[in-house]
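User: Okay, second chain of the day. Same drill as before: sequence in, structure tokens out.
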Amino acid sequence: MKQACEHCGVIFSPKVPGERFCCGGCEAVAGLLAREGLEEFYRRRDAPSQPVGELPQVNVSWAMAAQAEAEAGSGTAAGGHLRIEVEGMTCAGCAWLIECLFNRETGANRGAVSLTGGYLDMWWKKDAGFNMADFITRLAGYGYRAKAYRRSRFRAVPAPHGYFAMGLIFSLNAGFLIWLNRLSQQEGQAEPSLRIVLNGLLAVSLLAGAACWLVWASRLRRKGIDKGAVA
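Assistant: Same drill. Structure tokens below.
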């Protein structure tokens, strides 16, 4: 008889009577959550999980160098900040768990997970005992794989000034299309198909420009929050 895995909820066929988990990874993580008093994870989960399978192998060769570089480049003696990619997150429960695990680390200030971005922002106190390699190893025990954060080409646009420039470009382009559309209507030579194309381009320019302005404002606000983070 098939049943649901007590950790991830996947339906599976038990190989032996009384089997409660679909794989060894789910069993290991469930046991760890119980021992650490983190069963709140199950109540906060708002989306189906995936079987853990085999726990990820840990690679911490980059962690200590990344931590040292972040602390050296923070510009303040108060603490360091670093963003890392985290694979295996599927729901709000995962976000809560990872933030909770980081906040339990020695010297941790605060952590913030982005599910859509797939990353974790970490702020910690310098010389307070925080160890990036130990934290990454601990994440792996819960089925999450941490890696150095890699910017995409889109993210590499200088922010917030890059988004300000793109918003300005799209806005000027929208103004030009409005002028071109009115000019063609005044001359009475605009074909219906041409008007459709111009209006479509205008809509795209307005939406893209508005999006760039919003991202620009958001990046300014986030930059101010990062600078204002206290140890």
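Residues 3-44 form one domain.

User: Thanks, on to the next one.
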